[in-house]
Write a structure and sequence with these properties.
Blueprint lengths: L3 H22 L4 H16 L14 H12 L4 H11 L1 H21 L5 E9 L2 E11 H72 L5 H36 L27 H8 L1 H22 L6 E10 L5 E8 L8 H66 L5 H35 L24
Antiparallel strand pairs: 1-2, 2-3, 3-4
Helix pairs in contact: 2-5, 2-6, 3-4, 4-6, 5-6, 6-7, 6-9, 6-11, 8-10, 9-10, 10-11
């Protein structure tokens, strides 16, 4: 038969062994955290794995892959892959995974024991005092602190996953802007060529007396405006390209990459997503991270309440030996007496932080619903504008140009009217290009808003470009 005392001792030994196993199982595993981030973001980015240099230079495989991607005209998918491979800000963000993982492991470690030794003399008597003491409060709270640290690590993983998706979205929008700027620059050159031809013809006709000063000034004004438009297009092209370069983390010889000549064609129909708000509430990583934060603080609040009156609890095993007296052995437990500080302020602080997080989580959910609705409306509006250009305005402008060409061939209009019409046609196509760009950016932001917050870009607003002044010939 096992006595009650032996049963208690057995339970204490079992609990101690459990704590030792708990502490021994915890080991650093930042790569596992990165793999979880890659898994969470794979469907969005199209990349099954993520590269983390982790204090080392890029390996030969990464450099070779980067060179392969830059050797061809940079596609949208290649741009996202390069950004996830080479963006320094994202690489810095990955270290948060290592920090959270280290804190998780640290929270799982058993507290170190303390050792003290003393030598006392009294006449010829020499006494040695030796003791080992343990922090029992930390030992008892170890399972709770470990759960809190694990929740913090999981919360960081969700936040980094959202950052990966955000980098992918920013790269996509930068790519759309850069390609559109290249196209727009090409169109502005065509407008400038037409305006330059008109200005030269007007100068020659004015020289022989067939053009009034007003007519010549009007053509010269068209040419000056076209030249300004080309300068603005070049500035936009350079700015958008540099933005894309920053997203990709490129420098030196890597800057010589080329872009496709055109944006992707506008889809025939927009994607209908009637349940996007409900879907987003289930997949928003910022809501999940906020909920984990609230859970972690709730656990911390429970720990604070459990240890409200026990801030210091230490166990000391003493061994005192003297050259004249028998060896003394004993156990000592130290407890802080809650006389002046009943931990009311500490508990109130924990409760206030918890309630603050609860309200913040509710705000995140409310804002998420609004952001999803706003992004979806922007997406549909951007498609409507671009489709209106594609199906109505551009065909009408093309028909007008064809009719004007017939009239010019029949000598019903002059060359100046034909040049004005050519400029108007190019300007219309350029405005359609901007609407096309705005649609693709709105779609990229709509994809991201299902997982996290989005600040609608300026491209979400309808593009309004003033038409060139008509010629009055």
């Amino acid at each position: 038969m096992i006595s009650v005392i032996q049963l208690r001792e057995l339970r204490l030994v079992t609990a101690a062994l459990g704590l030792l196993v708990l502490a021994g199982c915890a080991s650093l595993a930042p790569q596992a955290s990165l793999d979880k981030v890659a898994q969470d973001s794979a469907a969005f980015t199209g990349q099954q794995t993520l590269h983390w240099a982790n204090g080392q230079n890029q390996g030969p495989e990464a450099r070779q892959r980067l060179a392969e991607l830059l050797a061809e005209p940079l596609s949208l998918e290649s741009g996202v892959e390069i950004a996830l491979l080479n963006n320094r800000g994202l690489q810095a963000r990955f270290y948060d995974l290592g920090i959270a993982d280290a804190e998780r492991v640290q929270a799982s470690r058993l507290p170190n024991p303390g050792f003290s030794i003393g030598r006392m003399t009294q006449g010829s008597e020499v006494e040695w005092e030796r003791s080992i003491h343990f922090n029992l409060a930390r030992l008892i709270a170890l399972p709770a602190t470990r759960r809190i640290a694990e929740g913090q690590s999981e919360q960081v993983q969700l936040q980094v996953s959202l950052d990966v998706m955000r980098i992918a979205t920013e790269t996509r929008t930068a790519w759309y802007r850069a390609v559109a700027a290249e196209q727009s620059l090409s169109y502005s050159k065509q407008v400038l060529e037409a305006a330059e031809a008109g200005a030269e013809l007007a100068r020659r006709m004015a020289a022989v007396g067939n053009f009034s000063p007003l007519q010549q000034a009007r053509e010269q004004s068209f040419y000056a405006e076209a030249a300004l438009g080309r300068l603005q297009a070049e500035r936009e092209r350079n700015a958008s390209r540099e933005h894309l370069i920053r997203q990709l983390g490129l420098w030196g010889d890597q800057l010589a990459f080329s872009l496709p000549e055109r944006l992707p064609e506008l889809p025939h129909h927009p994607v209908d997503r009637p349940d996007i708000e409900r879907e987003a509430m289930a997949s928003r990583l910022d809501i999940q991270a906020a909920q984990l934060g609230a859970t972690r603080l709730a656990q911390n609040l429970g720990l604070s309440r459990a240890t409200r009156f026990i801030n210091v609890l230490e166990l000391e095993v003493a061994n005192n030996r003297s050259n004249e007296e028998p060896t003394q052995r004993g156990v000592e437990i130290s407890v802080e007496l809650p006389i002046f500080d009943w931990s009311g302020a500490r508990l109130a602080r924990s409760e206030a932080m918890y309630m603050q997080t609860v309200e913040g989580t509710a705000e995140v959910a409310v804002n998420a619903r609004s952001q999803v609705r706003e992004s979806y409306v922007n997406y549909r509006n951007a498609w409507d504008v671009a489709a209106h250009y594609r199906d109505e305005i551009v065909p009408l402008r093309k028909r007008i140009s064809e009719e004007n060409l017939l009239r010019y061939n029949g000598m019903f209009i002059g060359v100046f009217e034909l040049l004005v019409d050519a400029r108007e046609q190019v300007n219309t196509v350029n405005r359609y290009l901007q609407a096309q760009r705005d649609f693709w950016i709105a779609e990229a932001e709509l994809d991201l808003v299902r997982y996290g917050p989005v600040t609608p870009s300026a491209a979400a607003a309808p593009t309004t470009v003033s038409a060139s002044p008509a010629g009055g010939h």
